[in-house]
């Protein structure tokens, strides 16, 4: 999956140093519900254990060939979003230097097209902390609609007491 600016591709263990460089930023992980990385080895382990699956991709900046974020879907998320039976959850993040450039919107459009064209998935759910409205704007630009539901998720890093707004996208009628 590719645009002029980004490519969604599998993660590689050789991405560990770049992942650490971006994922150690205390402004990035907590917005998405995960703890900042503390070492290259931790980032390598995240690639091996969390990112090494067929539904999670690195967001590669084509100009440099470096991974600048991640996007994926599945039921592996430890969050408590009110998903329907068999409905996957989408998650994404991008490194701070790439904020406000439309990268997440571009990546999410690619993922939604993949889900519509190449899978049997009927709908997906997504959520964002209400104190991170930019993430919600990305979802809405890609067709997600608020469900009217909110939840709290104590399982997510920095999630204690933070309200999550829930959005859903119907892919197939």
Please provide a written account of the structure.
A hairpin with a 4-residue loop joins β2 and β3. Strands 1-2-3-4 form a four-stranded antiparallel β-sheet, sandwiched between helices. Strands 5-7-6 form a three-stranded antiparallel β-sheet, covered by helices on one side. Helices cover 28% and strands 28% of the residues. The chain starts with 5 loop residues before the first strand and ends with a strand. The longest helix is centred in the middle third of the chain and has 16 residues. The chain is an alpha+beta fold and 173 residues long. The model has no long low-confidence stretch (mean pLDDT 93).
Provide the descriptors you would attach to this structure in a database record.
alpha+beta, about 30% strand, globular
Topology:
Layout: E1 6-9, H1 16-23, H2 29-32, H3 40-51, E2 56-61, E3 66-74, E4 89-94, H4 103-118, E5 123-129, H5 133-141, E6 145-152, E7 163-170
Antiparallel strand pairs: 1-2, 2-3, 3-4, 5-7, 6-7
Helix pairs in contact: 1-3
Compact overview of the structure:
This protein is α+β, with helices and mostly antiparallel strands. It has five helices and seven strands; from the N terminus they run E-H-H-H-E-E-E-H-E-H-E-E.
- The secondary-structure class comes to alpha+beta
Number of strands: 7
**Alpha plus pi helix count:** 5
Tell me the β content: 25-35%
Major β-sheet, in short? 4 strands, antiparallel
Mean pLDDT: 93
Listing every helix as H and every strand as E from the N terminus to the C terminus, the arrangement reads EHHHEEEHEHEE
C-alpha Rg (nearest Å): 15 Å
The main sheet orders its strands as 1-2-3-4
| Helix percentage range | 25-40%
Task: Indicate the multimeric state.
Answer: single chain
Low-confidence spans: none
State the shape: globular
How far is it from the N-terminal to the C-terminal residue, by CA? 24 Å
């Amino acid at each position: 999956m590719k645009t002029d600016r980004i490519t969604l591709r599998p993660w590689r263990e050789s991405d560990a140093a770049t992942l650490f460089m971006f994922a150690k930023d205390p402004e990035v992980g907590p917005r998405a519900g995960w703890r900042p990385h503390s070492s290259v080895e931790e980032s390598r382990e995240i690639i091996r254990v969390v990112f090494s699956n067929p539904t999670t991709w690195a967001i590669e900046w084509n100009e440099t060939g470096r991974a600048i974020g991640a996007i994926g879907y599945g039921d592996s998320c430890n969050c408590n979003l009110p998903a329907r039976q068999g409905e996957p959850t989408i998650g994404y993040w991008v490194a701070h230097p790439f904020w406000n450039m439309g990268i997440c919107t571009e990546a999410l459009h690619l993922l939604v097209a993949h889900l519509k064209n190449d899978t049997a998935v009927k709908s997906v759910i997504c959520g964002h902390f209400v104190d991170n409205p930019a993430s919600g704007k990305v979802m809405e630009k890609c067709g997600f609609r608020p469900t009217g539901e909110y939840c709290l998720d104590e399982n997510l890093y920095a999630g204690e007491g933070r309200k999550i707004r829930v959005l859903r996208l119907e892919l197939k009628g």
